[in-house]
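Lab notes, practical 5.
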Amino acid sequence: MRDWRVTWRTSGWRAVDARGKVIESRSIMGAYYRRPRSPHPVDGTAEDAAGFVMREGQALLRGLVADVTAFCISAPDAIERAEDKMLQLRTAEDVGLTIPRTVVTNVPDEARAFVEAVSGRAIVKPLSSGYLSDDPPQLAYTTPLTSDAEFGAIALAPHLLQERVHKVADLRVTVVGDTVFTCRIASQTHPETSLDWRMASALNIRLDHTIVELPQVVKAACVTLVRRLGLRFGAIDLIEHSDSYTFLEINPNGQWAWIEQRTGAPISDTIADALCGAASGVSA
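Output from the prediction step:
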């Protein structure tokens, strides 16, 4: 908390940074909640007290954000709730999107039976964010699961298993309010990225990105999904088939800048317009 001096009262709060910039809760007209960094103890804090100091700072930050009643993209509690992949899949199905055959289990026999039921075309991916560590950055990617797998490892933690479906390309659908940007990622042009296009970054592979139009019914379902989850923003991953689409997951606070940089899609302007519209009293 070295960079900010904060005082909270029931009437509101006031924060001043090291350069003298002042933020008061009552002056906030719109907010974009985008993965704030955790407060860190000041240099010289005793090692046995550092954990406590950090937790106190995090508690203060959560309280300050909760006190902001202005238009927010998106509310922190809604973001946290929407991280639940099982909730995502149920809701996606409810709004009319197609989902892969899915099971979440820590029972080896259930996992084995699922793989057999989908004729060995199964994948496994994390039930949570998939981040194994931040330093160095490590990510658990989607991987195949075959009948030859060591199913005993399933008992160590819950696993999300899905049927592997044929894809023409991957789509990243960025929803801001009622506005939808659909980016087609040519994941099938490289064997290494055919299952999980995120491998492109790790392998320094440049995949073609193209802005495309979804059928209206699919686009409307994506907007409805974001709303049902209580969000004003969502980064949705779809699989494109020759004549249909399959929902994989939604990241309620996902990245989008690389899409704007690669395609020119005005996502940042749309987010800014939503915030400015809310500040001026125009509903968003």
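Observations recorded by the TA: The mean pLDDT is 90. The two ends are 34 Å apart (CA to CA).
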